[in-house]
Known about the structure:
The protein is an alpha+beta fold. It is 26% helix and 28% strand.
Amino acid sequence: MPPAFAGGQTDFxxxxxxxxLQRRVAGRIEEVNEVYFADGQLLRDxxxxxxxxxxxxxxxxxxxxxxxxxxxxxxxxxxxxxxxIDRPLITNSGYRSPKTNSATEGAAKNSLHMxxxxxxxxxxxxxxxxxxxxxxxxxxxxxxxxxxxNFCHVDDGRLRTWRGx
Length: 165
Ligand SMILES: [Zn+2]
């Protein structure tokens, strides 16, 4: 199921869906900024590129990320763009292998990161709190706000919110 999407953006899901992701890996910036879904289907190559960016960097493993998670990220950017803010989502973490997850401080034991269904990150010069507010408004799944570390967690699991450090 796609995010419920409160509000009046009824044509949102009929439009092509784009994500703009960035990630710093070993001092280099990786980027995916493209339409991954159009005409009712996932576009294979852009989807694979997004999955690759969202890989477990530590383990060097990529998996098929949840398309609903991508929709949540797309929705967050859509709302931000509607407010005049068109910026990349900076990725801290996407997929995590069980080994990486257990080595991640504060990670939940059954984290949805291990199923390719969760994302941690932020937008440049944008408070993580605002990002979390947008994500909550979208009602796509879980939303965690980490104020001190300045990032937001989103996943496509059940609706819930929490605050971390
Ligand atoms: Zn997370």
